[in-house]
Amino acid sequence: MTKQPNPTLKAILEYGPLVAFFIAYLKLKDEIFTIGGTDYQGFIVVTAGFIPLFLISTGLLWKLTGHLSRMQAVTAVLIVVFGGLSVWFNDERFFKMKPTLIYLLFGGILGFGLMRGESYLKSVMEGLMPLKHDGWMILTKRVAGLFIALAVLNETIWRTMDTETWVYFKTFGLPAAIFLFFMFQTKLFQTYSIAETKEGDEDAG
């Protein structure tokens, strides 16, 4: 059963690890840590700390809400896998690839659903905004396109720019892009909202 936790606490658990990663990176980015005879850059050490922090936050969020979406579960797995690979091989590229793979995976899943005439996005977000079927299909196409675009953008930035630029992009750019995307979907929500349709029918009657 899904519970409704305090919104502030929920936001802290969702975004706290990312903010902590950003702050820790700024403090340790120029440091070199020698562990077991191997030198690790600050980015790798911060990544190693981010993994358990993210898992703890996700676990607390699960306990508070009684629910963990497939998207959250997949994200947690990929963070462990690719963050772990970065630490194990002492190579930051694995962790930088992680957003690319997440967005490609989610975009691909949504695209597969669309080919079957279904909106998998509906099963994740229906409780937040009830829409008619056509609305869900249009929104799903747009979100799938967004995910593919973000995957390409992430690859471009980490491969062509320095690590600090990528960290700023990961911390602020990606969330801002998703926020702005949904802000620009207002007309779609108004047009296909079930609540709006019912209200219109009542007025007509």
Structure, explained:
The chain has 205 residues and is mostly helical. Helices cover 79% and strands 4% of the residues. It has 9 helices and 2 strands. The chain has helices at residues 7-28, 42-65, 70-89, 93-115, 120-125, 133-160, 163-183, 186-192, 194-204; strands spanning 32-35, 38-41. A two-stranded antiparallel ribbon has the order 1-2. Strand 1 (32-35) and strand 2 (38-41) form a beta hairpin. The protein starts with 6 loop residues before the first helix and ends with a helix. Mean pLDDT is 88; it is low at 196-205. It comes from Pelagimonas varians. The chain crosses the membrane at residues 12-28, 40-61, 73-89, 101-121, 142-161, 167-184. Plays a role in cell envelope biogenesis, maintenance of cell envelope integrity and membrane homeostasis.
Structure in a nutshell:
This protein is mainly alpha-helical and 205 residues long. The chain has helices at residues 7-28, 42-65, 70-89, 93-115, 120-125, 133-160, 163-183, 186-192, 194-204; strands at residues 32-35, 38-41. The protein has nine helices and two strands; from the N terminus they run αββαααααααα.
Task: Provide key terms for this protein.
single chain; YciB; membrane; 9 helices; transmembrane helix; 79% helix; 205 residues; 2 domains; two-stranded antiparallel sheet; mainly alpha; cell membrane
Low-confidence stretches: 196-205
- The secondary-structure class comes to mainly alpha
Strand content: under 5%
Widest β-sheet, arrangement of strands:
1-2
Instruction: Count all strands and give the number.
Output: 2
Determine the mean pLDDT.
88
- Summarize the helix and strand pattern as letters: HEEHHHHHHHH
Spatial gap, N to C terminus: 37 Å
